[in-house]
């Protein structure tokens, strides 16, 4: 399989839903089904935080979520856990700066999608060298979801990257809602990645529909 093209990936990143069991108030499979009904474009399984599943339970949930994605032609990525991604034959993985070195991960996963969280120009150039397919940049806004999140950085880093000619697909993350998603796209991101504003929405499909409207209201 060839590496995914930049253009296809930019489309897939538009409304990128990230979730694990700890982010849900109803069963994660139901949350994912409703998010897909609303129109998410990509999904990442991120089973992290207090009370997160491990071992067989984690594998079983990942498999269930992957099947729902497959049935609906939604790319399914795994956060951090390369072994799980390979065991499931996931579509890709997302890693942070504290995870396995990106070059090693690229070798392990072959042509699967590789997303890397970056916070500076130096990290971005290193990630490009290592074979990243897209960057996750954040936290853009205040978030309560990631306890060890870096300070809120707004959209400055995204704007700087674009001003310096970085053409890598970019997705913003952290505190993104239907109300502020357009700001992230206007700054130069291709899409938004969202946990709480979808997983804990009063109406999950409506939240996704509103996020999509906000993302597509900006023509870059
Ligand atoms: N990385 C930076 S902020 C964040 C991650 C995983 C959490 C985003 O969650 P939310 O609920 O969309 O703010």
From TrEMBL:
CDD domains recorded: TMP_TenI
Reaction equations catalysed: 2-[(2R,5Z)-2-carboxy-4-methylthiazol-5(2H)-ylidene]ethyl phosphate + 4-amino-2-methyl-5-(diphosphooxymethyl)pyrimidine + 2 H(+) = thiamine phosphate + CO2 + diphosphate; 2-(2-carboxy-4-methylthiazol-5-yl)ethyl phosphate + 4-amino-2-methyl-5-(diphosphooxymethyl)pyrimidine + 2 H(+) = thiamine phosphate + CO2 + diphosphate; 4-methyl-5-(2-phosphooxyethyl)-thiazole + 4-amino-2-methyl-5-(diphosphooxymethyl)pyrimidine + H(+) = thiamine phosphate + diphosphate
The protein's Enzyme Commission number: 2.5.1.3
Keywords of this entry: Magnesium, Metal-binding, Thiamine biosynthesis, Transferase
GO biological process, one term: thiamine diphosphate biosynthetic process
A single cellular component GO annotation: cytoplasm
Record: residues binding 2-[(2R,5Z)-2-carboxy-4-methylthiazol-5(2H)-ylidene]ethyl phosphate: 143-145, 175, 195-196
Nucleus is among the record's keywords: no
Protein name: Thiamine-phosphate synthase
């Amino acid at each position: 399989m060839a590496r995914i093209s930049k253009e296809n990936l930019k489309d897939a990143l538009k409304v990128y839903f990230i979730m694990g069991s700890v982010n849900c108030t109803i069963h994660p499979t139901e949350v994912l089904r409703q998010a897909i009904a609303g129109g998410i474009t990509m999904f990442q399984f991120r089973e992290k935080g207090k009370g997160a599943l491990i071992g067989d339970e984690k594998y079983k949930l990942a498999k269930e979520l992957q099947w729902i994605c497959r049935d609906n032609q939604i790319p399914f990525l795994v956060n951090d856990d390369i072994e799980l991604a390979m065991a499931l034959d996931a579509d890709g993985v997302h890693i942070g700066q504290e995870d396995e070195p990106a070059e090693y991960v690229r070798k392990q996963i072959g042509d699967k999608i590789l997303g890397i969280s970056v916070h500076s120009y130096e990290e971005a150039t290193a990630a490009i060298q290592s074979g990243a397919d897209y960057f996750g940049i954040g936290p853009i806004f205040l978030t309560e979801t990631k306890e060890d999140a870096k300070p809120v950085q707004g959209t400055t880093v995204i704007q700087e990257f674009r001003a310096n000619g970085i053409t890598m697909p970019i997705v913003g993350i952290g505190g993104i809602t239907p109300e502020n998603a357009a700001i992230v796209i206007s700054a130069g991101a291709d899409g938004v990645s969202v946990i709480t504003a979808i997983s804990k929405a009063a109406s999950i499909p409506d939240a996704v529909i509103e996020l999509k409207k906000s993302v597509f209201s900006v023509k870059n």
